[in-house]
Amino acid sequence: MPYIGPSALFLLAASPLVTAWGTVGHATVGTIAQHYLTPAAQSYVSGLLGSGVTMASVASWADDYRYTTAGKFSAPFHYIDAEDSPPSSCSVDLNRDCGTGGCVVSAIANYVGASTFHAFKMIIVVHEGSYSDFLLQTQIVNDGRRTLTNRKQALEFLIHFFGDITQPLHDEAEKVGGNQIPVLWNGEDTNLHACWDTQMVEKDAGGNSASVITAFSNKLITAIDSGAYSPQKASWVSCNNIKTASTCALQWAADANKINCQYVLKVDETNKELSGSYYTGAKPYIELQLAKGGYRLGAWVNGLAAAA
Question: What is the pLDDT of residue 135?
């Protein structure tokens, strides 16, 4: 995603190679998560992000950061390239799909300090001839030895990655996660990944303003609390142990990846208009995945706060 300055936090940006839920999607995940924080977790988040700073307001920071010189190492952490065969077969295999530079599954594990093998597939990297020991990767959110800035950034990464991992095309290698599948949106050239990140989410929400994001988030919260998602929500957090972060994140990636076979890549949409029937079919999946991301993130941060 191109750089989005603070004053444009809730504005959507489009790019031929979009790399995450758009700003609206990430802010929605953050808003939902904040709703489910315990009082202790609310204090925990305020202590790291700052008084009055919401999770929604920093939810796209990781996209901004990855396009800086200091943050370009983090680009692979936004996805996992599942080398499967949609639409006939969808699967995520950590050994097969998580590259040596890391992926969203290992990044989530690493930022909470999960001591699994896969969390340390990212230990050493070289950037433009300079050595980096992945200082940011050791910015464990609950590690009191780290500076407040380090821990704040670790939380900001986690807030973002919980959104990324629920977007089906972030868990897929086919055509670079759909970035190389040209499509039309209201007659304009774009690509499949961009539609899932940006155009379809914005259409579903009804815009991209802060008030629209709040209303859209509240709609999904109501569905979680007392609507269609209420019977499902316990299963969304069946894996919620911060000590098994890699296992949980892999389950979440596989859960999103299967939607590529069910709908996203079920039919070749190359050069087709997606703002009509394809959008109508995608809308329930978009809302479900955003709700899952927010609910899981809220539960995860509650766990982090309890362990701090």
Answer: 35
Please name which of 277, 295, 276 lies closest in space to residue 227, comparing C-alpha atoms.
295
Q: What type of residue is 197?
A: D
Residue from 84, 197, 204, 255 carrying the catalytic annotation: 197
Answer yes or no: 21 catalytic.
yes
21 has a pLDDT exceeding 90: no
Active site residue 204: no
Half-sphere exposure of 193 (CA within 13 A, CB side): 23
- 133 an active-site residue? no
Task: Name residue 237's amino acid.
Answer: V
Q: Does the annotation count 66 as an active-site position?
A: yes
CB 24 within 8 A of CB 10: yes
Residues in the chain: 308
- How much is the average pLDDT of 10-18? 36
Average pLDDT of the segment spanning 277-288 = 98
Mode of pairing for the β-strands spanning 130-132 and 182-185: unpaired
What confidence category does residue 146 fall into, taking pLDDT thresholds of 50, 70 and 90?
confident
**Half-sphere exposure for 167 (CA within 13 Å, toward CB):** 34
| Phi, psi values for residue 85, rounded to 5° | -135, 65
| Mean pLDDT across 215-223 | 98
Look at the block and give the residue holding tokens 């990297």. 125
Q: Between 166 and 126, whose confidence is greater?
A: 166
| pTM of the predicted structure, to 2 decimals | 0.88
Q: Alpha-carbon Rg of the chain, whole angstroms?
A: 18
What is the rounded CA–CA span in Å between residue 203 and residue 77? 27
pLDDT above 60 for 123: no
Q: Which amino acid is at 187?
A: G
Nearest alpha-carbon partner for 63 in 8, 124, 118, 120: 8
